[in-house]
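Need tokens for this chain, all 95 residues.
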Amino acid sequence: QKFLHSPFNDDGIKVVDASGYTDGIVILLSGPGDNQVIGGEQVIVRIDGSGNRVIVDGNGRAINGMATRDLGFSQYSKMVLRFVGSDVGWLVVSE
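Here are the structure tokens for all 95 residues:
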């Protein structure tokens, strides 16, 4: 499968519409360096109900111990993540 890599390198809300990506879409969290600040939070919200796959990529850091994590398939699925340091990476605060 091919996935579109959409870089989001800011702290805040990422609104995702995956309806045009039948092969799925990959959302990159903030990259290493100044954008990965301890305590920094990123929120990803899916606004479509297409059921197309949305993969959240830790951009070089783990998400709950894994390189990637799937966002829910239903409309308005969300994931709130917090960066807790380079050793642990990103933790999912809520889904």
